[in-house]
């Protein structure tokens, strides 16, 4: 496969036409794809050279009796004629502002949200045949975002249109992560995670209709999308699923591995009972039936209301839980990543230099008028450990954590807490997954302030280009190897996609080397380099400690 280094290929091709002679740029026919259950008409983007299918259904509506039930197959819509796939589908109900909706605009009852939201957007070269496939799983804390913010056109064009991209949506907030043992019989626990698995099974069945190769699928997720992939790695590592191959390659950007705990624990039960009572349903065995018969608007409002209601031991309201035997997330994901089996995959993953910076309060740093700053700093960090994580006040684990992150190593206590947070939630999960394979590559995104999600500027620049400084050479240093992985199962197979002085990506598992993505301070030219053992990626000692704590305490 020949890949050209250009994101301007379609525009350059158009510029060669002799417009002065009065010739007309030919228009492409609208592409039509007939699936066994529906026919979709998309549009051809003449600037990018791609066919764009917006809103292809991969599962039935999740409203009513399908609430908190595993995604159901798409209904037969062949009698509806050709369906319009040129406009964005409804997004899954958003529990908070974000993505396309600002805080000032956000309304939990906004019309752009619908429970009928299990759709994919597909970007494909015309007449594609047997091309590699990228499946993107968006982030957003499992409570906001949709497929609308994530247009993969720049990276596809950068590959000379050599792969197909599928952008999925999945249930969010209470609709995807309100958990109760009552849902177990319908496989409705962790619905947002199992939706992602359902979309990957849809790709296996139907991507060939769009010219994709089901045997060369790369899954990529950022933040909670990356966390979803960690949970998929765990779930698909179960013995009964090891014969089901849903992907070949994995890319994770700062995957969000929050505390779990058993789905029948008091934490999840309290949340479910309070939510149920607020919906005017009885808190008993009839609760789920009542909630399934409650109006969408009431549930949207409650999903937003409870998004800000957290309990001790968890940093956010809506998170996956451990289902146990018979479920989809059978095991503790941290334990499986550390000690169990996961599907064989080529894995490229990383985190940001300051992933934890915006996740913890600046109040962690005591005012300078305290007589014993060190003791007060320890007390405040210890409080964080029992508020955001399932640690017990005064326990040996809390003391050991304070010892592993001595105040003297950090600029202040906020920086200390940020490092601890990003190890637990973002960095260590990456390292545990990479340790599982010899075909593994790590990065550390260190551009600008490098806080969480800044890398979206290069992953999806159409929507997020303002998050980091513009640098075409850094785009090549980061996205070039990713395109290489998607199309050839390795990041170093197309060096022409990278700057001339860009280092090859080292295999992580040999000596723990990784690529630092950075730019020069004044000219924004790629200054990426190879590093080893920086604490910002989670040291071996610290990550081993957190693995054991999570395993011992089942989170």
From TrEMBL:
<feature type="domain" description="Carboxylesterase type B">
    <location>
        <begin position="45"/>
        <end position="545"/>
    </location>
</feature>
<dbReference type="InterPro" id="IPR029058">
    <property type="entry name" value="AB_hydrolase_fold"/>
</dbReference>
<dbReference type="Pfam" id="PF00135">
    <property type="entry name" value="COesterase"/>
</dbReference>
<keyword id="KW-0732">Signal</keyword>
<dbReference type="GO" id="GO:0016787">
    <property type="term" value="F:hydrolase activity"/>
</dbReference>
<dbReference type="InterPro" id="IPR019819">
    <property type="entry name" value="Carboxylesterase_B_CS"/>
</dbReference>
<protein>
    <recommendedName>
        <fullName>Carboxylic ester hydrolase</fullName>
        <ecNumber>3.1.1.-</ecNumber>
    </recommendedName>
</protein>
<dbReference type="InterPro" id="IPR002018">
    <property type="entry name" value="CarbesteraseB"/>
</dbReference>
<comment type="similarity">
    <text>Belongs to the type-B carboxylesterase/lipase family.</text>
</comment>
<dbReference type="InterPro" id="IPR019826">
    <property type="entry name" value="Carboxylesterase_B_AS"/>
</dbReference>
<keyword id="KW-0378">Hydrolase</keyword>
<feature type="signal peptide">
    <location>
        <begin position="1"/>
        <end position="22"/>
    </location>
</feature>
<dbReference type="InterPro" id="IPR050309">
    <property type="entry name" value="Type-B_Carboxylest/Lipase"/>
</dbReference>
């Amino acid at each position: 496969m020949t890949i050209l280094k250009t994101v301007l290929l379609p525009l350059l091709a158009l510029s060669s036409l002799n417009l002065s002679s009065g010739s007309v740029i030919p228009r492409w026919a609208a592409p039509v794809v007939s699936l066994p259950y529906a026919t979709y008409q998309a549009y051809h983007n003449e600037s990018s050279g791609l066919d764009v299918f917006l809103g292809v259904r991969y599962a039935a509506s999740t409203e009513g009796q399908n609430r908190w039930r595993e995604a159901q197959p798409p209904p037969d819509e062949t009698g509806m004629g050709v369906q319009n796939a040129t406009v964005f589908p409804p997004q899954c109900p958003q529990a908070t502002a974000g993505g396309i909706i600002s805080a000032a605009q956000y309304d939990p009852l906004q019309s752009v949200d619908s429970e009928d939201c299990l759709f994919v957007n597909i970007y494909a070269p015309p007449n594609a045949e047997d091309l590699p496939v990228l499946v993107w799983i968006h982030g957003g804390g499992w409570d906001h975002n949709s497929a609308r913010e994530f247009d993969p056109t720049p990276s596809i064009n950068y590959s000379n249109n050599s792969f197909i991209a599928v952008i999925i949506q999945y249930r969010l907030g209470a609709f995807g992560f309100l958990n109760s043992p009552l849902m177990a019989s319908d496989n409705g626990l962790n619905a947002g995670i199992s939706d992602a698995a359902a979309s990957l099974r849809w790709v296996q069945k139907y991507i060939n209709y769009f010219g994709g190769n089901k045997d060369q699928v790369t899954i990529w997720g950022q933040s909670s999308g990356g966390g979803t992939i960690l949970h998929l790695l765990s779930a698909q590592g179960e013995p009964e699923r090891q014969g089901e191959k849903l992907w070949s390659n994995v890319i994770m950007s700062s995957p969000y591995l929050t505390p779990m705990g058993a789905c029948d624990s008091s934490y999840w039960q309290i949340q479910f009972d309070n939510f149920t009572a607020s919906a005017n349903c009885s808190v008993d065995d009839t609760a789920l039936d009542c909630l399934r018969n409650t109006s969408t608007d009431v549930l949207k409002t409650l999903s937003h209301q409870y998004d800000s209601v957290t309990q001790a031991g968890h940093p956010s309201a809506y998170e996956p839980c451990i289902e146990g035997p018979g479920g989809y997330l059978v095991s503790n994901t941290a334990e499986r990543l550390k000690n169990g089996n996961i599907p064989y995959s080529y894995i490229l993953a990383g985190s940001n230099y300051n992933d934890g910076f915006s996740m913890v309060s600046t109040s962690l740093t005591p005012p300078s008028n305290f007589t014993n700053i060190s003791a007060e700093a320890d007390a405040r960090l210890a409080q964080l450990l029992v508020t955001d994580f399932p640690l017990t006040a005064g326990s040996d684990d809390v003391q050991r954590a304070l010892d592993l992150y001595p105040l003297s190593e950090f600029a202040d206590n906020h920086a200390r807490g940020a490092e601890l947070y990003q190890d637990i939630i973002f960095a260590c999960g990456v390292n545990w997954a990479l340790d599982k394979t010899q075909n593994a590559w790590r990065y550390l995104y260190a551009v600008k302030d490098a806080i969480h999600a800044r890398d979206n500027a290069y992953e999806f620049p159409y929507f997020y280009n303002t998050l980091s400084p513009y640098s075409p050479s850094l785009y090549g240093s980061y996205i070039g190897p990713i395109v290489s992985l998607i199309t050839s199962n390795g990041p170093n197979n197309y060096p022409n996609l990278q700057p001339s002085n860009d280092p090859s990506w080292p295999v992580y598992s040999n000596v723990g080397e990784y690529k630092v993505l950075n730019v020069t301070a004044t000219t924004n030219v790629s200054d990426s380099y190879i590093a080893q053992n920086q604490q910002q990626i989670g040291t071996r000692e610290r990550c081993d400690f957190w693995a054991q704590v999570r395993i011992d305490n089942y989170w």
